[in-house]
Amino acid sequence: MKLFSGERYDLYQYRKYTDLRLVFAPEFGIAFFGGDAEHSTYQRYDLDIAFLRAYENGKGADTPQFLKWSIEGVKDADVVFSAGNPGATSRLATASQLAFYRDYSLPITLARLQTRIEALRIFAAKSPDNLRSAGRLLSDYGNAYKSNAGKLIGLKEDRLMARKQNFERKLRSSVEHDPKLGTEAGKVWDEVATAYKNWTPFEKPFEVLERPAAQGSTLFQIARQVLRLSEERAKPNEQRLPEFRDSALPSLELSLYSPAPIDESLEVSMVTHYLEELKVLGDKEAPLKAILGAKTPQAAAEEFVHTSKLKDVAERKRLAADHNLVLKTEDGMIRLARLLEDPARKLLKKHEETIEALETSSSERIAQYRFKVFGVNDYPDATFTPRVTFGSVKAYKDKTEAPVPFATTFGGLYHLADILEPYKLPQRWIDGKPSLDMVMPFNFVSTCDSAGGNSGNPAVNQNGEIIGISFDGNIESLALTYLYSDEQARAVHAATQGIVEVLRKLYKTPQLLRELGVPAT
Predict the structure, then answer these.
(1) Which of 20, 134, 344, 458 sits at a 20 to 30 Å CA gap from 194?
(2) Residue 86 DSSP SS3
(3) Mean pLDDT of the chain, nearest integer
(4) What count of other Cβ atoms lies within 10 Å of the Cβ of residue 309?
(5) What is the pLDDT of residues 144-157, one digit of tens each?
(6) Exposure string over 285-302, b if 16+ CB within 10 A, otherwise e
(7) Which of 107, 83, 95 is nearest to 482 (CA)?
């Protein structure tokens, strides 16, 4: 694995299990108690766990090395270590990049998500069938909105930007005073600032026309992939767009040829919304006359969707195999994708030349400078590879200065419980309430540096015993993408005490408890 942009390489070796069988999973109502509204928040009351057994050659895998479960469980101020495969972070981003995200990119993303959420709510309110069709998108966009809003809130904190600017000044000064680097090396920060200033007017059309384009429309995504796959596959591998290179094709084709059902009425709603976005963008950016003619966005969307055969997987495969067929077909959604392809490609090329190439080169140089100045004391950005982070179990004060406890309890869960979703408890939990210890820790927080990719991984104490399972972070933790802080950001874990309590008293799983090395009673 390439770390510090090539200043160091680590060799990772994995044992891969492909035969995994479910041993235990709780009801959805308690695994996701509070629903989407509680995502990326704390205080939490979720039994967001499951147990799987790995098999080799039809038999349970032999794994003599394993982490033991703590009998005592979590306590305030415990030292805690959390292992996981955290996803990409942007700690190498410069202050000018963060300002661009804060002032332009994130506000545009949030505005687009907000209007789609509103459109989906209107669509979902029309019938139970519509609600079922729109439910997943509403959940996905709600979570995406909260995630991006959390990042924006963090970037608007003066302290975060001040810390970033101070760190950058110190690093740049060290670089410029280094006899082997000098003032020329320090100009990388100026290059990044200039590039983002020049790119700013193109950010909105880029998001609308190219990435992510028609959010919410599965048919448009399929149409664009079919169009580009049929064209890119004819090019030498190294000249293709990254998502169409040989290494990426299996994943792309798995998604493209999925037989998952597509709701045409939902598609019409989402494509209508997209065409309205294009109207706002204007004639200079999008070929509106060719797309709409004299039609309203609603009427044009109905025509594009209802004249498309892309719901048929066989039709997708037929078109993707022959670029000439794609260019000639009268399929409605393919026609829409074709009309937008030229302006989208131009913006993509400009983004690659203005931002992507510079981001790669500047990030590499800055990473190398940081490694030269700080060495391994400054750990590299996350890369979806194994990391172990440490921190402490710690309460905090929220933005209103209200104290937030280090752990929630079963008593708090039952205080929030309601007869309506998403706070409705499974019947087992209602019936079993008298048997549970109401002050037992259920979920807890730590200052571990957590990011997407840590969920499902163990949190262990200083004795190497599991005291929790990571499953989320609070809203303040979302800004950790850019800079670590332990002031309010917290990783959220399901406490082993609470897990054992319900396995014993509600789910009655003595064999599983014995396998975990925990007394069954």
Answers:
(1) 344
(2) coil
(3) 95
(4) 16
(5) 999 999 999 999 99
(6) bbebeebbeeeebeebbb
(7) 95
Extents of the domains making up the chain: 2-89+382-515, 95-369
Answer yes or no: is pLDDT of 360 > 90. no
Which stretches of 18-167 are assigned E, i.e. beta strand? 19-24, 51-56, 59-60, 68-69, 79-84
Q: How confident is the model at residue 367 (pLDDT cuts 50, 70, 90)?
A: confident
Environment class of 53 (CB within 10 Å of its CB; exposed 0-12, middle 13-18, buried 19+): middle
Average pLDDT over residues 350-374: 88
* Residue with tokens 């026609």, as numbered in its chain: 335
The enclosing H or E element of 459 equals strand 458-460
Element (H, E) at 374: helix 357-374
Q: Cα separation of 387 and 470, whole Å?
A: 14
What is the token pair recorded at 356?
Answer: 């992507």
Helices (H), 442-486: none
Q: Are the beta carbons of 156 and 350 closer than 8 angstroms?
A: no
318 three-class SS: helix
Q: What is the 8-class DSSP label of residue 356?
A: I
Residue 494: DSSP 8-state: E
Residue 361 has what pLDDT? 85
d(CA 411, CA 295): 58
CATH 2.40.10.10 matches 2-89+382-515: yes
Cα–Cα distance between 241 and 327 in angstroms, integer?
19
> Letter for the amino acid at 506?
L
Tokens of residue 209, six digits: 């026309």
- pLDDT of 338 > 90? The answer is yes
63: left (phi over 0), alpha (psi -120 to 50) or beta: beta
Amino acid at residue number 87: G
Q: Kindly report the length of the chain.
A: 521
pLDDT digits (tens, 9 = 90+) for 184-211: 889 999 999 999 999 999 999 999 999 9
Taking CA atoms, 352 is separated from 347, 348, 359, in Å, by: 9, 6, 9
DSSP H or E stretch at residue 269: helix 264-281
Distance in angstroms (rounded) separating the CA atoms of residues 445 and 403: 13
Whole-prediction pTM: 0.90
- Chain CA centroid to CA 108, Å: 18
Say how far apart CA 31 and CA 28 lie, in whole Å: 5
Q: Which of 11-15, 60-64, 305-309, 401-405 has the lowest mean pLDDT?
A: 11-15
Name the nearest CA neighbour of 53 among 61, 44, 65, 43.
61
Q: Could you report the per-residue pLDDT of 497-507, keeping only the tens digit for each?
A: 999 999 999 99
Query: Has residue 372 got a pLDDT over 90?
Result: no
